[in-house]
Every structure is written in C-alpha cells, then in structure tokens.
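Quick one: structure for this chain?
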Amino acid sequence: MSYSPYPQGQPWQPWQQGPGVPQPWGGQAVPSMLASHADRERAVDVLRAGYGEGRLEKPEFDRRVARAYAARTVGELALLVADLPQGPVPHAAPVVPAVFRPVSRARVNGKAVASAVCGGLCLFTFGLTGIPAVILGHMARAEIARTGEEGDGLALTGLALGWLANGAWVVLMLLSFALALASG
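Got it. Here's what it folds into:
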C-alpha cells in the first residue's frame, strides 16, 4: 500500500494536479525524492504568500500547511502549491503621466559654483579671490562644454567678478606707480 497525504474519502481538490508542476525550489521535482526541512519551508512560504494575497481561505491554508509539514516527498509538496504562483506576485507600477513626472535636470558643475563663490568673495577679500575665480571659471566653462553640465551662468558670473577684481588691482598698482614717479 502506498502512502498518500490525502485522507480517504476527501474530495479531489483543484490544487491536486499531476506531475510536471513548477516547484518553488526550482526545476522539476522527482515525486519520490524525500523532502528536506528547507523544501517544506519553501512550500509553506509559497502557501503564506498565496494566503496573504487572498488566494486561499484560512481553513484551506491551515490544511495545506499541516500537509506540507507532514509531507515525506517533494512530489507531495508540489501538489500542495501547484495552483499558486511561486511566491508573491509583483504589483504593476502605477503609470504616471509625463506631465507629472519630475524633470531630470543635469548636474551643476562644481567648479562653476566655486568660481561664482570666489567672485562674490572678491568684495570682502579686497580682490584676493579674483584669480581663483578666473581660473575656476575658465575650467568650468571647458568642462561644461565637454560634458553638458549646468552652471554656465555661474561660471560667467565668477569670471566677470574675478576679472573686475583683477582689473581693479591692476589699475590700483598703475596709479600707485604713477604717483610714485610723480612724487619723485
């Protein structure tokens, strides 16, 4: 007499299908291969997912879990999960119209930001940050042209303020040299 996990007199259930059923543990199972504890736990996980998704009623879930823990072969476990998806079914991502999607913006060049900051600090440092503002501004504009990053306006601001500060220093030095020559 062969062992059957189904009690005598119980009606056939739709989940009692034949061989060739996909297994939650991958591949096709040999029905007579002994089931391990891990095989039983994987089958119970599939049952839990089916119950959580509303595919099984509580009494049917309880019966199947009890049978899964009592199963001796992998084939018996396959019959318990044959009519369920092999794990939670992923939900479809909601479709958001393009109007409401965030606009992807290009990255702002860091050297352009640094150039604008140095240019702005020229007023407070008496023009000492003018040279770094000019150097960073030219480097930023070259990178922006090559990579397509944002920040060209910041780089131009830093360049303009840096050149103004450097020009002011040049004018101040020429005036002081002219005064030195004139005084003697």
